[in-house]
Every structure is written in C-alpha cells, then in structure tokens.
Amino acid sequence: MSITRLARAAIRDLRPYEAAIQVDDTIRLNANEAPWRNSADHFHRPLNRYPEIRPARLRALLAERYGCAPENLLVTRGTSEAIDLLMRVFCTAGVDNIVTTFPTFSMYEHYAVVQGAELRQVETDGDNDFLVAAESVLTACDDGTKIVFLCSPNNPTGTLVPRDTLLRILEDRKDRSIVVVDEAYIEFSGAGSATDLIPSFENLVVLRTLSKALAFAGARCGSVIGNKRIVDILDAVQAPYALATPVVECVENALANESLADAEHCVAETINERARLRAELEKFSFVSRVWPSAANFLLVEVVDPAALMLHCAKDGLLLRHFAGQLANCVRITVGTPEENARLVESLGRLEDKDG
Ligand SMILES: Cc1ncc(COP(=O)(O)O)c(C=O)c1O
After folding, report:
1. Residues framing ligand 1 (Cβ under 6 A)
2. Same domain (yes/no): 273, 237
3. pLDDT band of 259, cuts 50, 70, 90
4. Dihedral through CA 260, CA 265, CA 266, CA 270, nearest 10?
C-alpha cells in the first residue's frame, strides 16, 4: 500500500496549483505581471516576473549536494516551512498525534499546536547524554501517530540518533508513521546523513537546511528529502512561487564550488572552536556540566543560570536559557574564535566576582 495513505484524506489527491506557463523568448501576457521593471529592481533576474513556480535548477543543485535525485527533494523556505507542511499534510486536527523526544527543537510542538495535532514527548535523560531509546519512542506511538520527529544532532542537546535506533524505529513504523530525521546540524557532526536509507524506507523523510553550515539563515532555504510520492504531496500543498527570485539567485551562487569551500572551512573552524570552548567552560566553578555536542552549540549546566544570563547580557553577550527540565542549562552557540574568547573573558570576570 502506498505511503500516501498516511496523508489526510482531503489532501491525498490534491493537484498542484496550476500557474501560468513561463516560456523564454515569448511575450508574457498570461500572468497579470507588470511589463516594466521597477527602478529599484537591480537583480539579475527581473522582479516584475513571478519566479519559477518551483526552482528547477536550485532543486537540482541541492539534490546533487545531498546525494539524491531531484524528484526526491522539495525546496522549502527553511526547514521550518518543511515542518509546517508535513504537519498539515499528515495530521488531522483533533485526531492524529506526533511523537517527539524531549528536550528537542520546539518548532515541532509549535506546528503541532497550529495544526491541532496531539504532541507526545518521550523524555531523554541528561545522565545518559540524552540518548534516544527506540523502545520508548515506539511505546509512545499508536494508530494515530502520523509523524515521529527525530532531531539528529538534536537541538538543544547536541546528541546524535544512532543508526540502529533509527533503523529500529523506521522498521517498526513502516506503513504506519512518517519518520522525520531533522539534520539541520549534521555537517557539524562528522556523521553520515540518513538520506541513503530513503530507497529502503518510504516512510523516511530527511530535513536539511542551508541556515547553519552554509551560513544562509537569512535566505530561508531548506530541503525535504524523501520518497517521490511524499515529495509530490508536499509540493501540491506548498504555496506557489514559494521561493523568491533574489533568494533563488543568491542560493544558486552560494552553491558554486568556491562558496562551498569557504563554508567547509568555517564548519571545520566551528568544530575546533567547539572543543576548545568546551574545555574552557569546564574550568569554571559555576559550570557543573558541558554535554558533548555534534552541533554548532554546547548545552551547559550551571549553578545559577539567571545570574549568568544577566552577567553576559551586561557584557553584550546573548545566550539561550530554557525552562523546565533544562532550567539549570544554557545553550551557547559556538561563535568565531574572537567571540568565544570574549565569552570566556567575560565568564572569567564572573568567576572572579563570585570567587
Ligand atoms: C533542529 C532544527 N531544525 C530546523 C531549524 C530551522 O531551520 P531553518 O532555518 O532551515 O528553518 C532549526 C533552527 O534553529 C533547528 O534547530
């Protein structure tokens, strides 16, 4: 049976929006566009014309980057849009549920609430490096579980989901749930992507983004990678002309080899800085624990997070503090060597004051 059976009944047979056709070297009188360019339009591709309904070249470039066929990839406005689309396609309000681990990226919860899907969270334990246990995830699932979200490396813990855990969940939920692996931070981990499993598991969806390793958060460009049938349904639901012309233009340029080499260098520097910063942080008496991280941030347990946040804010340094289970923790993004040095210096002053 096709995996599309898991989609909401109303959406299963939805056809994509039919846009006015775009043909080079023709007079375009079919889309109610302005025939003249705005004097503020300095882009290479004219903005008086709608963008391609789906950016074919960008899709091909991203598919090449992620090692999949273009038909298995949908370009989205960041991974955030992909999460929203998945929720809207697969979850019926008041009926279906999603399963996530906890703590994890809060956007899964956000879009579950927007869609009216029940949220089921499977606790992970800081004393066990927040490792995800396949059996706990599977126990939380039932017939109404349409999506299992696994974030690897996980935000905010930096933990990877081991391959055998993923395989166990994919196998058990085959034909029953979409299993989403959010790989927003995978480039900082040294681990391989789960995309190679897509031919074997039609319930697997992988999310990638240019916001982190490519330093393109402002461009809003992500990818959903999965079985063609899933990609086609998401495509039918996504807004027409979702990717703006300047974004397509600048991201295509970013994917040129030279910019990729720059980005790879910066990722390598972040990985080095992560180790250095972790070692520095562990020296402070008010830091009780720094978890190992496969991402571009560190989760740090401290004695008095409110005092730490205040001290850093006064020094012009912004950190992230969470509530609940992580109330004693702050998440620190790894910055440039200079920014990290500023942070360590500032924390040194806090240590002197406390000491
Ligand atoms: C785990 C995870 N997934 C997705 C995103 C969103 O990324 P994007 O900028 O592609 O929407 C974030 C952003 O911080 C994230 O931490």
Report:
1. 78-80, 105, 151, 155, 182, 184, 209, 211, 217, 222
2. no
3. confident
4. 140
Same domain, 114 and 191: yes
Judge whether residue 127 has pLDDT over 70. yes
How many distinct structural domains can be found in the chain? 2
Atom number, ligand 1, closest to the C-alpha of residue 76 = 10
| Whether this model's pTM surpasses 0.70 | yes
Q: Report which secondary-structure segment, H or E, holds 320.
A: strand 320-321
User: What does the pLDDT read at residue 262?
Assistant: 86
State the distance from the centre of ligand 1 to the C-alpha of 10, rounded, in angstroms: 28
| Residue nearest (by alpha carbon) to ligand 1 atom 16 | 155
CATH number at residue 284: 3.90.1150.10
The Cβ of residue 53 has, within 10 Å, a number of other Cβ atoms equal to 20
Q: Which long-range contacts (CB under 8 A, 24 or more apart) does 19-25 make?
A: 19/50, 19/53, 19/240, 19/241, 20/50, 22/49, 22/50, 22/52, 22/53
> Which residues span the domain enclosing 288?
259-354
Judged on CB neighbours under 10 Å (0-12, 13-18, 19+), 147 is buried
Of 75, 79, 181, the residue with max ligand 1 atoms within 8 A of its CB, to mutate for a pocket test, comes to 79
Q: DSSP label at 74? A: E
Residues 278 and 341 placed together within one structural domain of the fold: yes
- Atom of ligand 1 at shortest distance to CA of 212? 9
Helix (H, G, I), strand (E, B) or coil at 204: strand
- The Å distance, Cα 23 to ligand 1 centre, comes to 35
